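Long-time lurker. I teach an intro course on protein structure, and each term I like to show students one example going from raw sequence to a predicted 3D structure in token notation. This year I'd like something fresh instead of my usual example. Would anyone be willing to generate the tokens for the chain below so I can use it in lecture? Attribution to the forum is fine with me.
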Amino acid sequence: MTAFFTSLIFVILAEMGDRTQLLAICFAARYRWQIVMWGVFLATALNHLLAVALGNYLTVLFPLNYIKIAAAIGFIIFGLWTLKGDNINCENQIQRFTPFWTVFIAFFIAETGDKTQLATIALAADFNEFIPVWVGTTIGMVIANGFGIVAGVLMGKKLPEKSLKWIAAMIFIAFGMIGLSESVSQNYLKMPYIASAFIILGFIIYLINRFNRAKA
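-- Reply from a regular --
Happy to contribute to a lecture. Here you go:
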């Protein structure tokens, strides 16, 4: 039980104010809270199952820094995908990409390389107990993101859909950029590279926004 309660409390504390909790706020403002909760639960359960199963061996199989870089890039791509809005905002696209899968994929990507996943790996290696750590970290994520879902439901009654789309996209992109800044070599964190990255990203956002206007 020590492994379970330690994992539960640790993840709840680590998740407060984390990017996945912010995602819960945005998604709950757009979709039914039941869908968001199931998406969060199943994405977390699968993600943390892999984390616990691999444990310390993950860093042997794949350099952890590469995993964090891949997750950060995926986060940025999903943010741009959100701005495009084909699969998230258009009702006629719902059969191709439902709200549940939107939440599931987003949370799985967001949790990959996140501090709560890294904490799960460390806890599994420390306690060497599979089920207690897995269940504890998963329930901890659900509890912490439950607060975000409540906040998102309240926000959804006031925020327009277009604003929610931009808020969600900017959160994705911002944390993707932060993830890259924490993972890439310091040689690439020089002003010319940073300026070029922002220019390219801004140009892509401009093209997407122009495309959406033309489509409308």
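Some talking points for your students: The first helix runs from residue 2 to 15. Confidence is low (pLDDT under 50) at residues 86-95.
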